[in-house]
Amino acid sequence: MAKRKLYHLHKIKIHHNRWLIWALAYALIVALALISYIKISDLNISSEADSVFSSFHSYSDSRLGFGVRYPADWAIEAEASSVTFLPPELSDSGVTVTVADPSSSVGIRKNLKIISETNTTLGGIIATRLVNDLGGGHSEIIIMATHNKKLYVVNGTENLMRPVLLTFHFITK
Predict the structure, then answer these.
(1) DSSP E strand stretches across the chain
(2) Whole-number Å distance between alpha carbons of 143 and 135
(3) pTM above 0.70, yes or no
(4) Domain-wise residue ranges, the chain
(5) For this UniProt entry, which segments traverse the membrane (predicted)?
(6) What digits encode the pLDDT tens for the residues 27-71?
(7) Residue 121 · residue 165 · CB < 8 Å
(8) What's the CA gap between 170 and 71, in Å, rounded?
(9) What is the edge-to-edge ordering of all strands in the sheet holding 56-61?
């Protein structure tokens, strides 16, 4: 009887591409695991972003032609041609958005000690990013963009500007 079982096992055919089949199965399992990991990570990141931006307020001014979201604990000082967003811990510095005539960009540049100048975007349009040396190792970021025959100048420190710039958008009448 034992001989008969051995003879029967010997007759089982082994597929000649068995290593290829195993490799494909392994690749499929790894791909599925990777896809599920990416989906879970994406959900975590989007929920973190939602929690960060849920504590933001919206500001929109059709007269000046822009809108932005800013942290809920910040204060706003609005003037005729500019709006300043002030964080609670730094009442003397914040993020200022000024709307001016496009020809005034030359005068603005004259008063600056420009360290670097690069291109960036503001509200989906190409803008100029300037780094102004304030002295004492301090600097400020100034972003200038022209939209609808208006010059938009956004200035402040980089860490304060980041949340405002991410949500800046132009309003067209």
Answers:
(1) 56-61, 66-71, 75-78, 82-86, 95-100, 114-122, 125-135, 138-147, 150-156, 169-170
(2) 19
(3) no
(4) 2-51, 56-170
(5) 20-38
(6) 999 999 988 888 777 766 665 555 555 588 899 999 999 999 888
(7) no
(8) 19
(9) 56-61, 66-71, 169-170
Nearest to 103 by CA among 64, 61, 153: 153
Give the chain's length: 173
Tens digits of residue pLDDT in 98-122: 999 999 988 888 888 999 999 999 9
Residue 82: closest CA among 51, 59, 56? 59
Give the count of alpha carbons within 13 A of 32, CB side only.
Answer: 6
Read off the pLDDT of residues 9-34 as tens digits, 9 standing for 90 and up.
Answer: 566 677 778 888 889 999 999 999 98
CATH of 56-170, one of 3.40.630.10, 3.90.320.10, 3.40.1000.10, 3.40.630.30: 3.40.1000.10
d(CA 72, CA 58): 9
Q: Distance (Å, rounded) from C-alpha 163 to C-alpha 52?
A: 10
CA distances from 94 to 71, 87, 116, 171 (A): 12, 6, 21, 22
